[in-house]
Amino acid sequence: MMKGRCRMLTSRLLILNQKEAECKEMAAYFQDSGYSVIWCTEYDEATEILSRGKNKPDLLIFDVDLPKRREYEALEKIRSLSDMAVLMLSQDDKLDSQLYAYSKKIDDYMVKPAPLPLLEAHVEAVIRRTAEKRNPVESVGALSIDYEGRKIYLADKVLKVTAKEFDLLEYFVKHKGMILSRDKILDSVWGFDYIGGYRSVDTLVKKLRAKLTKEYPYIKTVYGVGYCFDV
Q1: What is the pTM assigned to this prediction?
Q2: What three-state secondary structure class fits 48?
Q3: Is 220 left (phi over 0), alpha (psi -120 to 50) or beta?
């Protein structure tokens, strides 16, 4: 495996679910996927975590069977302590209930039971949208990415890329410092239903490396695993 600064890390999640067994299962799944996870079963514990002010989560998975007044009061208090994204999981599939939840400024709503891989896809999408909204232009090393205009600049010059090359480079930048398997890249950039194989990833990486030139060797190979974007 490649040596250096690349490491398995990603966004920070806070999981709040009053059912401890479900909480532990979900936490274990996301930890295995490389997320930094904090979980708790009590609302007061969640607010205490957020009040510390250090290493605040990027997203809250608020897992409640049937949210009522107490749950929304807890959500309001959490919102007063953090501007992190909120994904609500609930057994309530009624349209009015979902619309009410969105009126409380959540970012996503999923009806239980939700398969964990699908939940992870929603988590990634929410975190990505939140980051792009806060930072429409992101700079990493000599690269600058304009997410709204879908333009890439290298050393202040426009870098001509295809739509798929933009998607792949965006994915690398959003997961900089992470070791990314080819499977993970395929699912995230090409989609779960893509029938192609690893060669699609390797070919596109080769094209991106050529455009970045040897002067900016940001895309590292992690032998036997995949790639890591490191500046």
Answers
A1: 0.59
A2: helix
A3: beta
